[in-house]
Amino acid sequence: MKRPxxxxxxxAVFLSTALIGPDARAYPEKPITVIAQQPPGSGSDAxxxxxxxxxxxxxxxxxxxxxxPGANGILAxxxxxxxxxxxxxxxxxxxxxxxxxxxVYKNMPYDPAKDFSGVTVFGATPMILTASADxxxxxxxxxxxxxKAAAGGVNFGSPGKGSPAHLLTTxxxxxxxxxxxxxxxxxxxxxVTALIGNQIQIMTxxxxxxxxxxxxxxxxxxxxFASQRSPxxxxxxxxxxLLDAQDLARPAWIGVVAKKGTPIAAIRSLNDATRxxxxxxxxxxxxxxxxxxxLATTGDDLEARAQADVRVWRPLIDALGLASEN
Length: 326
Fold this sequence. Notes:
This protein is an alpha/beta fold and 326 residues long. It folds into 2 domains: 31-125 and 251-320, Bordetella uptake gene, domain 1 (D-Maltodextrin-Binding Protein, domain 2, 3-Layer(aba) Sandwich), CATH 3.40.190.150; 127-248, Periplasmic binding protein-like II (D-Maltodextrin-Binding Protein, domain 2). It has helices at 4-19, 43-59, 74-81, 95-99, 112-115, 140-149, 164-175, 188-196, 207-215, 239-242, 264-277, 281-289, 299-320, and strands at 32-36, 63-67, 89-94, 116-125, 127-132, 154-158, 180-184, 202-206, 219-224, 252-259, 293-294. The strands form 2 sheets. The protein has a 6-stranded mixed β-sheet, sandwiched between helices. Belongs to the UPF0065 (bug) family.
């Protein structure tokens, strides 16, 4: 005759054993792939690798960065969407992919709100308009004069269609009534090479990318897309000093997202590790050397920040007529 309490005990043991399955194991149990949406050598790639190296130490598993550049992040996003939502593939993502790129296409290639779960924003940095040293452009008046004199206007580069650099520069040349032609590149690095060679005359860059080239005399800083000057560029005016353009005072930011449906435990683990990195002096100094402010936000903060930026960018996209069919 079976005793009731033994039957109950056996059921409890079976239930607890069933719960200790793959979903209940400690995360992470194996290496994590981090998709980077810009090519090696770009500012975004460098920031991603700094973050990945630190977080790997905190979670005691390798974070392997894989570069998937192209189409201003769309190739990388499609790669993420094709992976399991298990927390073992995440993506570093910029303000551009979260708040601009989907909206410069009439048929949205992806929907950030539906396709991603936010993990963290881990850095923010001002952007700066620069000119080739050989262009002779040293300020906005020079830029306007050059654009009006050159056939086809000024050639300005960006890391890709729908990037903050594309939108900010387009809005700026529109405000100063300077004709211009957008020349997209695959990542910042290729654009910087063309800019130094004066194949294009101006380009908006992440300030950490611009800083060494400005110091070397290869690029001329024109304006900082911020509401106040930066200690890294004390002599460069903020855009709000030059124009009535508070809408253009938008810092770039970079964060991490996972595929929608990723377990919350995985997201929290990566978020907690990012917070621990703020106490790592080696990590913070490396970001600060790129003129990046180290951050560690919640996933909800990332999504709220993105929505706040969308409310600024979408009217600009519509006003400038930047949306295209493909």
